[in-house]
Amino acid sequence: MKIKGLVILLLSTTGLALSILFYNSTVTPFDRPFILSHTTETIIATRVDWMCHCANFVDTTMYKTNPATEPSDDDYFFIESDSASQLDRDYFSKNEYIKLTGQFYIDKGIPEEYKLGHIEDKPDHARVFKVDKIE
């Protein structure tokens, strides 16, 4: 009876450890943000070139009053769009500031840009801005 309980405990612990390793290295549907805000916003954002898979946009409108302010980690966000052609990376490198119109998701997550499956460096969850229009 005790051996059966130990075997069950060992198997469940091993399964839990493998599940945690899988989740930490794989983008799953649970990583996606689900709830879109009802408020449409227009923000002026700039892209930050990090050397990782990270949230790489920051809203510059809040820094106009105090330009010496450093953005905190929570100020960075991802962007996503329904049309992949709208998110041309060359456009962001040619223009320092971009006017984006859309909605933030209420919950944090990883955008659709990161396909489901294994990637080398899974990004941390961050706010996601769903873009309707880029100017």
Architecture blueprint of SSEs:
Layout: H1 2-25, E1 26-27, E2 41-47, E3 57-59, E4 76-81, H2 89-94, E5 98-104, E6 117-118, E7 127-134
Mind describing the biggest β-sheet? 5 strands, mixed, barrel
Structural class: alpha+beta
Query: What's the number of helices?
Result: 2
Q: β content, as a range?
A: 25-35%
Distance between the termini: 69 Å
Strand order of the largest sheet: 2-3-4-7-5
Mean pLDDT: 81
- Please give the number of β-strands: 7
Number of domains: 1
Range of helix content: 10-25%
The Cα radius of gyration reads 19 Å
Low-confidence regions: none
Shape: elongated
Helices and strands, in order, run as HEEEEHEEE
Structure write-up:
By secondary structure, the protein is α+β, with helices and mostly antiparallel strands. 22% of the residues lie in helices and 26% in strands. The chain contains two helices and seven strands, in the order H-E-E-E-E-H-E-E-E. The strands form two sheets. A five-stranded mixed barrel has the order 2-3-4-7-5. It has a two-stranded antiparallel ribbon with strand order 1-6. The longest helix is centred in the first third of the chain and has 24 residues, at 2-25. The protein starts with a helix and ends with a strand.
Summed up:
With 135 residues, the chain is an alpha+beta fold. It contains two helices and seven strands, in the order H-E-E-E-E-H-E-E-E.
